[in-house]
Write a structure and sequence with these properties.
antenna complex; electron transport; 0% strand; photosynthesis; mainly alpha; 10 helices; Globin-like; 229 residues; chromophore
Length: 229
Amino acid sequence: MSFLTTYRYSVTDSPAGNLKKGRSFTLLTSLLIVLTMTQPQLSEKVRELIQKARIVTFATWQNTHPAEAIQLFQAADDQGRYLSDEDLQQIQELVSANTALIAVSQGLRDRVHEIVDEARTHVLATFPNITQPGGGLYPAVRADACWRDFWHLLRCITYGITGQHTDYTSTEGLHYMQLLYQELQVPLDAMVVGLEGIKTASLKRVEPEQQAIVAPYFDHLIEQLKQFR
């Protein structure tokens, strides 16, 4: 992901996510790419943490989702992409899913760039010097990695919304992500503020009657990140 995810896709892909042929990265980190530009020799510890920091799990979904549906979620996560329209349609057919929540997930996916832009603006307003020399998101490649993490964090949240599971995170994966963030000195306060901004921007794009239903999926990941501090 950037500071967080593993990369199996190009960030220039559409929100619905199509793999670029011939590319396969493991989902944690555009920061891996960023750091290899600025620090060609990543430590073995960082490389190991990148491989282990997979924060999504569907292991607890077996009682509510058939294997075919779980495979659709897993494939999207492995490829670091949002669920496609085809994925969502198949999930709807395989599971007695809440149609309204699937529509919410689809809408957030389609407006992810707007949502990330608003979250970024919120972070920069809260921490005006964070991208300046000495700030936690300096130089620019670190800031870019942070914004890409926001893209991925919302991706993970949409999996939970689509599957109607707030327990979409892996305790083990989050542990390794915390260690990675510590190793890379990621500004955790800014990440939490950013994720709260993602929640606010997302709920603005959800029908009022759905907001209270959708909010816990964001709150779950916000609380996990707060525990990193």
